[in-house]
Amino acid sequence: MGKIVLHKSRKCCNASKLILVCDDIFDNCFFLQTVLEIEGYQVETVDSGAAALAFLESKRPALLLLDVMIPVMNGYEVVHHIKNNPLLESLPIVLITADEREFFRKEIDVKVDGFIRKPVEPDVLIKYVQATLRQSPCL
C-alpha cells in the first residue's frame, strides 16, 4: 500500500472551518475526518441524512461532504431538504459518489458545489475542499 503524503496548508483560517461529513460507513468517515484534520479543519461526522439535518439545526458548518448512497434518505434527498430551507440554502455541498453517471442523471434536479468520485484520493479531497471554501470568507 502506498504512503499517503499530505502537505499542511494553513492558508486562510482552516482551523475555524467546520466541515460536516455524512457517510453511513464508519471507515469512510474516519478516513475523511483524518485527512481533513491533518489539514487543520474541524470535522464532525454523522452517519445518516436525518442526522445531518438534525446537526444543521444547531450548527452551521462551512461545508457539507455528503455521500450519495446513504440509507433511508439518500444524499440527493438531503440536498433537496437543505436547498428548500432558506436558512441553509447557501450551505456549500460536495457530494461523494461511487457512481458519477447517476450524479449526472440527477444533476439537473440537484444543485451542489461539486462531487468527488470514490475511492477518494486525499489530494483530490483537499483540492475540492479548498476550492469550495475559497468562495466563502474566513470566519
Notes on the structure:
This protein is an alpha/beta fold. It has a single domain (14-134), classed as 3-Layer(aba) Sandwich (Rossmann fold), CATH 3.40.50. It is 37% helix and 17% strand. The chain has five helices and five strands, in the order βαβαβαβαβα. The protein has helices spanning 26-38, 49-58, 75-83, 100-106, 122-134; strands at residues 18-22, 42-46, 63-67, 93-97, 114-117. The protein has a five-stranded parallel sheet. It is globular and about 30 Å long.
Q: What is this structure's SSE topology?
A:
Elements: E1 18-22, H1 26-38, E2 42-46, H2 49-58, E3 63-67, H3 75-83, E4 93-97, H4 100-106, E5 114-117, H5 122-134
Helix pairs in contact: 2-3
What labels describe this entry?
five-stranded parallel β-sheet, disordered N terminus, 139 residues, alpha/beta, Rossmann fold
Q: State the order of secondary-structure elements, H for helix, E for strand.
A: EHEHEHEHEH
General form: globular
Helical residues, percent:
25-40%
Q: Could you give the distance between the termini?
A: 38 Å
Taking all Cα atoms into account, the compactness measure Rg is 14 Å
**CATH class group:** Alpha Beta
The profile of the biggest β sheet is: 5 strands, parallel
Number of strands: 5
CATH superfamily heading: Response regulator
Strand order of the largest sheet: 2-1-3-4-5
Structural class assignment: alpha/beta
